[in-house]
Every structure is written in structure tokens, then in C-alpha cells.
Amino acid sequence: MTAQHALLAFGTLCALVAAIVVNLVVPQFDEVYRNFGADLPWLTRALLAGRWLLFGLPVLVLLAWWLTPAVPGQPNRRGLVALLVGVGLPVVLVPLVVIGLYLPIFMLGDAVGG
Q1: What residue ranges are annotated as transmembrane (predicted)?
Q2: Which terminus of the chain has fewer Cβ atoms in its 10 Å neighbourhood, N or C?
Q3: In which band, very low, low, confident or very high, does the pLDDT at 33 lie, cut at 50, 70 and 90?
Q4: Where are the domains of the chain?
């Protein structure tokens, strides 16, 4: 296995782990929000309805690998791009998931307290 393939594998693994973790956590919130009986924000609804789409994240890493052009005379950057996409997606995704899952709780607290 070359270094480029190791970077691709690690980036793909990071994206897959992020998708698995989100799909393990989100159903627990789904059950709670069904009992709320209130309208959920669009971000929360999208997350609850489309969490399975996150299993496409590893495909995005593979696409980044495949679409990165080879520049003659330059080192191959395909592995680095795949690693950055594989690590970068969860870095962006995790805060969005946390916001999406806790936003209804904050809104409920604001409505009750305000």
C-alpha cells in the first residue's frame, strides 16, 4: 500500500465513522422530538429525515480522489486531497448536527423562559 492509498483509506474511514456516529445518535433525538408535539426547525427536520444520506460521505472522499488531477512534475496530491475531504467533512458536519439536534431544545427553553 502506498502512502497515497493510506491517506485515501484514512480519509474514507473518517467519513464513514462520522456517518455511523451520526446515525447512531440521531434516532435517540427523533424519539424525544416525537413526544414534543411542536414544529421542528428545518435543520432538525432535514437531519432526522435524511440522516441515511450521510453514508454518501465516503463516496465524496472517493470522488475527491478521482477528480484530483495529476500535475506533471508535481508530487501526487490525490491522497492529501482525499484526506482533507475525509477529515474536513466531519469537522463541518459535527457542529451542524449538534446545532440541528439541540436547536429545538433551545427554542423550547426560550419559549418557556421568555
Answers
A1: 7-26, 46-68, 80-105
A2: C
A3: confident
A4: 3-113
Name the residue with cell 431544545: 105
Give 4's contacts (C-beta < 8 A, 6+ positions apart): 76, 78, 79
pLDDT of residue 38: 75
How many other CB atoms sit within 10 Å of the CB of residue 5? 13
Query: Do residues 104 and 30 touch, judged by C-beta distance below 8 A?
Result: no
Tell me the one-letter amino acid at 112: V
Of 37, 51, 54, 53, the C-alpha closest to 104 is: 37
58-75 pLDDT, tens digit per residue, is 999 999 999 999 888 888
